[in-house]
Write a structure and sequence with these properties.
The chain is mainly alpha-helical. It is built from 3 helices and no strands.
Length: 49
């Protein structure tokens, strides 16, 4: 039963995670890294230029 509960919990979290992770992990990284990290800046500089 523990394995089934774990899988159910993972599935429920995965359904909500995709909506929160992509928005929190994807945007923040590209928008914050490029501005704070120069290496990633190239991704923002080309867009500005």
């Amino acid at each position: 039963m523990t394995i089934k509960h774990d899988k159910n919990n993972e599935v429920e979290e995965t359904k909500e995670s995709p909506l929160v992770e992509p928005e929190e992990k994807n945007p923040p990284k590209p928008l914050v890294n490029p501005k704070k990290d120069e290496p990633l800046s190239p991704l923002t500089e080309p867009n500005k230029k």
